[in-house]
Design brief:
This protein has 251 residues and is α/β, with parallel strands linked by helices. It has one domain: Alpha/Beta hydrolase fold, catalytic domain (Rossmann fold, 3-Layer(aba) Sandwich). The chain is 34% helix and 24% strand. It contains eight helices and ten strands. The strands form two sheets. The protein has an eight-stranded mixed β-sheet, with helices on both faces. Strands 7-8 form a two-stranded antiparallel sheet. The chain is globular, with a radius of gyration of 17 Å.
Length: 251
């Protein structure tokens, strides 16, 4: 496997940090990976899934959204829509420098983001979501106790995963405006939905709603026993193998 540390600019000219992993042989396809809310490209599960896909001859670009990880920008000035724009910028980078991505993979809120981004990236042939919410506003439960303060004061500092983040009112407003059902109704390519029945962060009912809204060809795989962050390496490796095997039919 060949691993390259690269950077590219988003629509606002900010430099985003990324890691491109290539198989030893010519890739059969390029995949773009979107990490979970407030996470980054170096989450263990993201790295493991990417490595597993690369072993199956799929090149993977994983990057940090604006304001997270090693990327430039302030997280407090981002929102769900800016994540989608970052994904489009990443896809454009791949298209111009390597090969257009035909597979989008998203974990948690990143799963919802790749569904919306697919409408802006015409080269996509397949989408795989992992523990994704059926509606972006689902993440608001992470800072539910601060919602009133955010609305009244314009922003609030909240603790997510043991780290503090500033959430602004515009973020709350942005996640309210997206309708995933309309987007899925327009998506005519294949989608794979992976979700754990034991996921206590994003309930399994979200997977049912995404599956119901999606058109065929659509598939669902239960990640029985896994937690939301796929903290057991065996679970993330399993996810990588499932996605690679499933995608082979469509890529």
């Amino acid at each position: 496997m060949i691993s390259q540390k690269i950077t590219f600019k988003n629509a606002k000219g900010m430099v985003l940090a990324a890691r491109l992993e290539l198989p030893e042989n010519k890739p059969t396809a390029y995949a773009l990976f979107a990490h979970c809310f407030t996470c980054n490209k170096n989450l263990t599960a993201v790295r493991t899934i990417g490595k597993t896909l690369t072993e199956k001859n799929i090149a993977v670009l994983r990057f940090d959204f604006t304001g997270l990880g090693e990327s430039e920008g302030d997280f407090e000035h981002t929102n769900f829509s800016s994540n989608i724009e970052d994904l489009y910028s990443a896809a454009q980078f791949l298209k111009e420098n390597y090969q257009a991505p035909s597979l989008l993979i998203g974990h948690s809120l990143g799963g919802a983001a790749v569904i919306y981004a697919s409408a802006k990236i015409p080269w996509v042939k397949a989408i795989a979501t992992i523990g994704a919410p059926s509606n972006p506003k689902h993440v608001s439960h992470l800072f539910h106790s601060s919602i009133d303060e955010i609305k009244e004061q314009g922003s609030a500092i909240v603790s997510i995963g043991g780290r503090e983040f500033t959430i602004q009112k515009q973020f709350i407003e942005d996640i309210q405006e997206n309708n995933i059902k309309q987007t899925l109704n327009s998506f005519r390519n294949s989608i794979l939905i992976l979700h754990s029945p034991q996921d206590t962060t994003v309930g399994i009912d979200n997977a049912a709603e995404i599956y119901s809204a999606a058109r065929h060809p659509k598939s669902f795989v239960s990640l029985n026993g896994a937690d939301h962050l796929l903290s057991d390496k065996r679970d993330s490796k399993y996810v990588g193998n499932i996605i690679a095997t499933w995608a082979d039919r469509y890529l």
